[in-house]
Design a protein that fits this description.
The chain is an alpha+beta fold. The protein has eleven helices and 19 strands. The protein folds into two domains: 307 residues, 3-Layer(aba) Sandwich (Aminopeptidase), CATH 3.40.630.10; 120 residues, Alpha-Beta Plaits.
């Protein structure tokens, strides 16, 4: 997950109650007091849920072992090949890798139901050479990416196994995916390729499993990311003294950016996350770069913060060049786009059917009632295309995502994460004896 902190909706408790009433009265005829989603009444789905619980140790082993295969940005090939191999071993002989590295396995339905895509992302934020060996301390697993998104990949594999072992018959097709390029520099390229290429117009519901816990991301946080390069003549720190410095200009820009004011609602943020430049301690820097990230749920607020940051950079250039008026050369700045994560023109309603199904599925499993909220995930792409989509957590608990000390702990009911994903998928695709929501 591109780790935008999850933003709970202020009224989600009220909304959950409203959703339950709506689902119970309009969508889901209860067959038993403990079964409040269509799929949970099907004996084969119940068998698949039992498979997941009985196979929990296997799922954890999938999570740990796949995490020990490096998958830095744009270099997910080794992990993707292994993910495909595991799907084939689970009975998905049609599992394949597409032109950009997405792993895809399709499970045909009996007909007449919606197509559901379930995805976890293959890539991590960690550069090549990062130690990804999983360290175990009791039931605590620690490794870069162990939760984000090795947990999501393990959940997809767990659902794949349980659907086959439980003999679940869905009406709609189910597409299981390990996608590339979810994290920052990847710019959601994997899901973008899937939903605007091979599967354009062919997916009715998209479910991303990203990270840990129980939560429903049902709204998009948009982002704009730029690499800003400051370019000047450079020179000897003593002999050429009096020329502007690219690093000094960048420092002024960072100082200016830190003073930019943004609204708290809708939450809007900015960050300078990576800086580099210069050649030696005794050289006036002729080049320096910084990576800038801006985010908001509001397209208007995102445009405003971008304008403010561009102005801050322009002011920094003017100040650095004015500081050295005798210099024959000036510092300039060039912007290169790292990634744009779109905000839908029309947000997905808080009471969308896919959200209601997810909430009711959690209730049927006696899992924690997940909060709804906004995030920056693979679901940004289907939302922008007007598709039904959510991102969910994979269960369990943990912390320090995007840090070397990232850890995951399954706890007493971590198995409910994969169960939740399966129940959502089966409910959306429709089971042969159930009612499609």
């Amino acid at each position: 997950m591109d780790r935008t902190p999850f933003i709970p909706h202020p009224a989600f408790r009220i909304a959950v109650s409203a959703f339950r009433i709506a689902v119970l009265t309009a969508l889901v005829p209860l067959v038993a007091a403990s079964q409040s989603t269509p799929a949970s009444s099907d004996p084969r789905v119940r068998s698949a849920l039992d498979v997941i619980r009985a196979s929990n140790a296997w799922t954890l082993e999938q999570q740990a072992s796949i995490c020990e295969i490096p998958a830095p940005p744009f270099k997910e090939q080794q992990r993707g090949a292994e993910f495909r191999r595991r799907l084939v071993a689970l009975g998905y002989a049609n599992a394949r890798i597409d032109a950009i590295g997405n792993v895809i396995a399709e499970r045909a339905g009996s007909g007449g139901g919606p197509t559901v895509m379930l995805a976890g992302h293959l890539d991590t934020v960690f550069p090549e050479g990062t130690d990804v060996k999983v360290k175990r301390d009791g039931d605590r697993l620690a490794a870069p990416g162990i939760g984000d998104d090795c947990r999501g990949l393990a959940v997809v594999l767990g659902v794949a196994k349980a659907l086959n072992d439980g003999g679940v018959k869905t009406r709609g097709n189910v597409i299981l995916v390990g996608d590339v390029g979810e994290e920052g520099p990847g710019n959601l390229r994997g899901v973008r390729h899937l939903l605007t290429g091979e599967f354009k117009g062919k997916v009715d519901h998209f479910v991303s499993v990203d990270g840990i816990g129980f939560r429903v991301t049902n709204r998009a946080v948009g982002s704009k990311r730029y690499n800003v390069r400051f370019i000047g003549p450079g020179g000897h720190s003593y002999g050429a003294f009096g020329m502007p410095s690219a690093i000094h200009a960048m420092g002024r820009a960072i100082s200016n950016i830190s003073e930019v004011k943004v609204p708290t609602s809708p939450k809007t943020t900015f960050n300078v996350g990576v800086v580099s430049g210069g050649t030696s301690v005794n050289s006036i820097a002729g080049s320096a770069t910084m990576d800038v990230d801006m985010r908001s749920e509001s397209a208007a607020s995102l445009e405003q913060v971008e304008s403010a940051i561009r102005n801050a950079i322009a002011d920094a250039l003017a100040a650095e060049n004015a500081r050295w008026p005798a210099s024959p050369a000036k510092i300039v700045a060039r912007f290169d786009t790292i990634g744009i994560r779109p905000i839908p023109g029309k947000p997905q309603p808080e009471d969308a059917p896919i959200v209601r199904v997810a909430l009711e599925a959690a209730k049927a499993l006696s899992a924690p009632i997940p909060p709804t909220g906004a995030g920056s995930t693979d679901s940004n792409i289907p939302w922008n295309l007007g598709l039904s989509a959510i991102t969910i957590g994979g269960g369990g608990s943990g912390a320090e995502a995007h840090a070397l000390g990232e850890w995951y702990k399954d706890g007493a009911d971590g198995y409910k994460g994969p169960q939740w994903a399966l129940l959502i998928v089966a409910s959306l695709a429709g089971v042969a004896s159930g009612v499609t929501p």
